[in-house]
Write a structure and sequence with these properties.
Oligomer: single chain
Structural class: mainly alpha
Radius of gyration: 70 Å
Number of strands: 0
Number of domains: 1
Distance between the termini: 101 Å
Largest sheet: none
Shape: flat
């Protein structure tokens, strides 16, 4: 019987009961079956308290985070934000708003008043008229100078033409041209003679150069250097090349062949000895170290490793299964404790509030509080009326005493009044008008008033 819950994807991939699985699961060993249940029981016993403590810590941590750390962090963040603004933002904003901007505006106004406006006025009222006058004067002077230059240029051109150009043209055409033709003919004749003399002199100089610098070196190379070189080459071949060839063929080659044969023999012996030694050493190493190691690995370590792997896998599966079961148990225990606390504390308080406190509160409100409030309101209203009536009585008594002691105040006629107009009667500002005389049936207090 499978005690584990399968994941959703494995449950979806599981074939229906009527169809056989094409790839049946591999059979588990007896070791896995034997240790599975005890390991899971032991691990469950060990993991359940840990999971309970973990869930309790998680609940406490969430409560502490949501009820303590996050509000405190928000408060600290708000305080730090306010401090940052108060230290770094608001001073600069105030400096910019109340110092830099007004000072800049004042400096701009001063610059405009002290520099821009005078400069514009100076440019428009002084420099522009002066510039226009200078330009007009310069144009007049330029026109005069240009007219004078044109006149002087025309005169100079006429003088140049009649005093220089025409005589020079006549002199060139009538005098210099014939003289030039004669000089050219004479120069051509002299050039032909000089060329003939130069060719003869050049031939003589070339023969002298060859006789002095070329022919001696050619004779030296042909009749001295070449024969001496041929003799030296014959001597070198006879004295060096022929003995060297004989020495190589008759002496060095046999000696080299002997040394090579000896080296091949020594190499063959060394290789045979090395192969034998390697064969012996490898055989000994294989039978002394490799074979026992393979046997230990195959018959001891591999089974132990497989058993340890099975045990570790089962322990891991047991831990996962126990953790999930402990989670369910922790949830059940938590719900039970919550319901128990609710039954012990919340429900009695709720019952007392609904059954006892609410009716008693309603009774106190309807029977005591509201009548007391109405009585207090009535007493307050009666007291206010009594105080108002007493104040009015005091004012009336004071007015009567003043009238008995000093008499009624005089009423002078106004200056602007005429005979036909009614005379206005002034009203006392401090005391009210006197009412009719008191009688035994009349009353001025609110307590005895009908």
């Amino acid at each position: 019987m499978d005690l584990e819950k399968r994941p959703p994807h494995e449950a979806a991939q599981q074939p229906p009961p009527g169809q056989a699985d094409r790839h049946p699961p591999q059979a588990e060993g007896c070791l896995a079956v034997a240790i599975r249940l005890p390991v899971r029981i032991v691990v469950l016993v060990l993991v359940v308290p840990v999971r309970l403590v973990w869930d309790a810590l998680a609940v406490c941590g969430r409560f502490l985070y949501f009820r303590g750390l996050r509000p405190v962090g928000r408060g600290i963040g708000a305080v730090l934000t306010w401090l940052f603004k108060a230290v770094f933002v608001w001073p600069w904003v105030g400096l910019w708003r109340y110092v830099v901007v007004p000072v800049g505006a004042g400096l701009a106004w001063l610059g405009r008043v002290l520099i821009v406006v005078p400069s514009v006025w100076l440019y428009r009222a002084v420099l522009t008229p002066i510039g226009h006058g200078i330009a007009w004067l310069a144009r007049g002077i330029g026109r005069g100078i240009s007219a004078l230059a044109l006149g002087i240029g025309a005169g100079c051109a006429w003088l140049w033409r009649h005093l220089v150009a025409i005589p020079a043209a006549w002199l060139y055409a009538s005098v210099l041209t014939p003289i030039g033709h004669g000089i050219a003919w004479l120069a051509r004749a002299l050039g032909a003679g000089a060329a003939a003399a130069g060719r003869g002199i050049g031939a003589v100089l070339v023969w002298l150069l060859k006789a002095v610098f070329v022919w001696p070196w050619v004779g030296l190379w042909r009749y001295v250097v070449v024969p001496v070189g041929a003799g030296l080459a014959w001597l070198g071949r006879v004295l060096i090349v022929v003995p060297s060839v004989w020495l190589y063929r008759a002496v060095l080659t046999p000696i080299g062949h002997g040394i090579a044969w000896l080296a091949r023999g020594i190499g063959a012996g060394i290789s045979w000895l090395a192969r034998g030694t390697w064969t012996v050493v490898s055989t000994l190493f294989r039978w002394i170290l490799v074979a026992p190691a393979v046997a230990v690995w195959r018959w001891l370590l591999a089974p132990i490793g497989r058993a340890v792997a099975v045990v570790a896998r089962e322990i891991g599966d047991a831990l996962g299964h126990a953790w999930r079961v402990a989670g369910h148990l922790s949830l059940v225990i938590g719900r039970f404790l919550a319901k128990l606390l609710r039954w012990i504390f919340v429900e009695p308080v709720r019952w007392v509030y609904r059954t006892v406190l609410t009716p008693v509160g309603h009774l106190v409100r309807d029977a005591v509080w509201r009548p007391a409030a109405r009585a207090v309101k009535e007493v307050r209203r009666t007291t206010r009326q009594a105080l108002t009536a007493a104040r009015e009585s005091v004012r009336q008594a004071r007015a009567d005493v003043r009238r008995m002691l000093f008499g009624a105040p005089g009423q002078p006629a106004p200056v602007a009044a005429t005979a036909g107009e009614p005379v206005p009667v002034p009203v006392a500002r401090r005391e009210p008008d006197a009412r009719g005389a008191r009688t035994l049936g009349s009353s001025t207090t609110a307590l005895t008033k009908d």
